[in-house]
């Protein structure tokens, strides 16, 4: 069984935990995921089963949408509620006008540094591994990210000297919600951490089309076909001798403006992914069949 599983990941599990659960559910070791979610984050996690692991690189270029809550005036070493409190600034006032002005400064493209507790690798080791071992955390260059839309969902709620506000964001791949909370707080002359992060969309994949962890464990999870998962890529239909050429990984001459094509057969199944090399020459990037026609 090959395909893409959209999982509504609950809090408390790492993305790798979910991969292991899917391995047991589908009785295969070949399970991967696209777009890591922190253990305390929930929402859409895209899992690939068997041959679909080979198309993950074509799924991970998409934008993400999140809803999240920020607690201002207190921060932690992980920038979320699971970490150790490192600083407090109780009583600092967050005015709505100031908050809206600060939010507007994050619209568009800017550079964001990953948080210390992140899965970004430096010299073969993830940043959070350095942090947990108490070792100096290597400096990682800031990365360009784009915020398409950021908005406040609730009015500030004051409690015990802290201020809680919920937000929604539509941002590019590589956007860190926890780091955004810290950067936003800095614009407001205070500190912050996240108390909740919920991914509502990953690329074209939505929460509404995702299955629960319980459904996965009970064998009730349906898969998207690989072709359905790549519908954002223009398709090219082949049959007969051309089908055989594709099965042997031969180049194709195709008149198309697209830099990448998903090649499908008579039944609409994905059989290959081709990449443009010059004006009309396409070479195979991935081939999912072999041996040609008998």
Structure description:
This protein has 294 residues and is an alpha+beta fold. It folds into three domains: 3-62 and 203-227, 2-Layer Sandwich (Pseudouridine synthase); 64-198, Pseudouridine synthase; 233-287, PUA domain (Archaeosine Trna-guanine Transglycosylase, Chain: A, domain 4, Roll), CATH 2.30.130.10. It is 19% helix and 36% strand. The chain contains seven helices and 19 strands. The chain has helices at 15-26, 96-104, 127-132, 177-187, 213-217, 226-229, 240-247; strands at residues 3-9, 31-34, 41-49, 64-72, 74-76, 85-88, 108-112, 121-122, 125-126, 143-152, 157-159, 162-171, 192-202, 205-206, 235-237, 252-253, 260-264, 270-276, 281-287. Strands 1, 2, 3, 4, 7, 10, 11, 12, 13 and 14 form a ten-stranded mixed beta sheet that branches. A five-stranded mixed beta sheet has the order 15-17-18-19-16. It has a two-stranded antiparallel ribbon with strand order 5-6. The chain is elongated. The model has no long low-confidence stretch (mean pLDDT 92).
């Amino acid at each position: 069984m090959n395909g893409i599983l959209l999982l509504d990941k609950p809090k408390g599990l790492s993305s790798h935990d979910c991969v292991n659960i899917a391995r047991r559910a589908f009785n295969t070791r070949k399970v991967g995921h696209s777009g890591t979610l922190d253990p305390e984050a929930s929402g859409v996690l895209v899992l690939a089963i068997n041959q679909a692991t080979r198309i993950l690189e074509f799924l991970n270029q998409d934008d993400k949408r999140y809803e999240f809550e920020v607690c201002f005036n207190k921060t932690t070493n992980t920038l979320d509620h699971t970490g150790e409190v490192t600083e407090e600034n109780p009583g600092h006032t967050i005015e709505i006008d100031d908050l809206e002005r600060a939010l507007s400064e994050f619209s568009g493209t800017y550079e964001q540094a990953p948080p210390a507790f992140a899965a970004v690798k430096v010299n073969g080791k993830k940043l959070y591994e350095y942090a947990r071992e108490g070792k100096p955390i290597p400096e990682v260059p800031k990365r360009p990210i784009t915020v398409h839309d950021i908005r406040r969902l609730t009015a500030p709620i004051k409690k015990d000297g802290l201020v809680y506000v919920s937000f929604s964001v539509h941002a590019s791949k590589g956007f860190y919600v926890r780091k955004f909370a810290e950067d936003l707080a800095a614009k407001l002359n205070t500190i912050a951490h996240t108390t909740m992060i919920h991914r509502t969309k990953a690329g074209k994949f939505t929460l509404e089309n995702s299955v629960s962890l319980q459904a996965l464990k009970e064998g009730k999870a349906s898969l998207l076909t690989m072709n359905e998962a790549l519908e954002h890529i223009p398709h090219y239909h082949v049959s007969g001798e051309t089908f055989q050429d594709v099965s042997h990984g031969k180049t194709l001459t195709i008149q198309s403006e697209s830099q990448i094509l998903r090649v499908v057969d008579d039944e609409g199944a994905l059989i290959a992914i081709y990449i443009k090399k010059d004006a009309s020459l396409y070479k195979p990037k991935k081939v999912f069949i072999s041996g040609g026609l008998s």
